[in-house]
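To: structure subgroup
Subject: Chain for Friday's discussion

All,

I'm putting the inputs and outputs inline so they're searchable in the archive.
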Amino acid sequence: MKMRAAAVQYHLHTISSFDEFAAQAEHYVKTAQEFDTEFLLFPEFFTTQLLSIPDEQGKARGIESLPDYTQAYLDLFRNLASKSGMHIIAGTHVVRREGKLYNTAHLFYPDGRVASQEKIHITPTEVHEWNMARGDGLSVFETDKGTIALLTCYDIEFPEIVRMARAKGADIVFCPSCTDDRHGFHRVRYTCHARAIENQIYVVTTGTVGSLPTVDFMRGNFGQAAVISPNDVPFPPRGIVAEGEINDDMIIVADLDLDLLEQVRARGSVTTWRDRRTDLYTDWS
C-alpha cells in the first residue's frame, strides 16, 4: 500500500477578506493536485491569518474572534477536498465549545466527511495568552490508504501519546506545527524523528512561514515541512524522505510505502516496536 502525501509551508501575510484566505488555500490545493497528491497537510494555526482582517475600527482581531470563521472554514475545505479528491488535513483551527477554545486539527475526506482531533498538550503561551483548553481524547482515523493520527506540534514531544496512536493502528502521524523561532522548530523536528524511530512509523510535519505583524504571537514564524521515516534500510539514512527549504513559501511531495514499515517491523536492523519491554513499562495497546 502506497500513498502520496504533500505538506504546505503556508505563507502568512496580512489579508483583507476571507476570500483572500480562500484563494490562497485553493492555490496550494491545486498545486498539490497537479502532483496527484492524495493527502495534503496544512500547518497549525494557519487560520490565524484571518485575524489580520481589520475589524470595524480598522484593528486586527483577537484569538477569541477566530471561531467566528469556523463555518466558513469548514465549508471551504469540505468543498476543496470534494473537488480535488484529496484527503486534506487543514492544519488547525480554533473552535469554541461550551465556552472554551480548542486548538483543533481537522481531516476533510473527499466524500464530505469531516473528522477532528483537539490538541492534547497545550503550550504555556496557549494557556496564559490565549486561554486554550486541552483536548482529552485520542482518535485514529481510517482511510482507504491506511490508518492515520493527527497530533499537533507540542503533542509530538510526548512519546506516550504517539505510542497510543501506534497501538491503535496508526502508521502515519500528521503533525501540523507552528513555531516562532529555531528553538521551537528543532524541538518539534527532533521529536518527530524520535517518534518515527520508536514506533516505526512515518511522520509528516509542516509549519507556518512569513509573519502577521498585527496579530499577537504570530509576528514571527520559523517553519519547514518534512516527511520523516524510520532510520533503517530501505529508508533514507537520515530518515528524511523529503523536506522543504526553511521559511520558503512552498509545498513538498513524497510517496509513503506502508509495506516498507511492515518489513522493518518484522526484520529491520532494529525492531523497536516489537522489542518494547512491556514487562517493565506500560503497554499502550
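Points worth raising on Friday:
The two ends are 23 Å apart (CA to CA).
The CA atoms of residues 12 and 71 lie 21 Å apart.

D.
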